[in-house]
Amino acid sequence: MSEPVAQAASLREVVPGVFRCHIQDERVDAPSESYAVAGAGGVVLVDPLPMSPRARASLEKLAGERGIAAICLTASHHQRCAWRYRDQFGARVHAPQGARGLERSADHTFRDGDQLPGGLLALRSPGPSESHYAFLLPKSSVLFCGDLLCNIDRAGTRFIVSDEHKDPAATRESVRKLLDRDFRVICFAHGEPVTRGARRAILAALRRDAASPAGGRRVAR
Asked: Do the domain assignments include residue 49?
């Protein structure tokens, strides 16, 4: 999938050290999010989206002399502008091992349990695709869940409709396994982060799904 035309207008703090870019994504007719994780080794971009000059200036100010250290992808369908930013910032792209449909070769590939730049922990979470991952940032208790769940239209955290996932049953199992991890904040590829009651939000999504499996939010790819 090509890059979005829309650009994130700003870079907004989710929790200290974690920042969010937001667009209304014309490719999927839904909101899309990307994130920047700031640390001692520089800034790491997660599933990067195009940025306006203002947002980019904020990013470069955040990065300072440390620069953009890396770009980490939760899945191949979240390449977005990763390759353009690799060219512009000189940041290396980290992609899931076995990811299909990458437009270019990643600089590094990762597997379940690997440590990534910025202190991110790679958690294989199949369902949306076979090589789909969530990232855990233990130091901030933040979980980046990719396309496992969304939080759009004030309807609460929920699943993306099943026909857009390669293996919906695996998606549900991946979400249940998230509850074994220690986190307080959850960040989505589509929709507002949940900064309070993140675990309750996941449990509510599972309850909604059990009551009405077809009741998820459509996010086309």
From this structure: yes
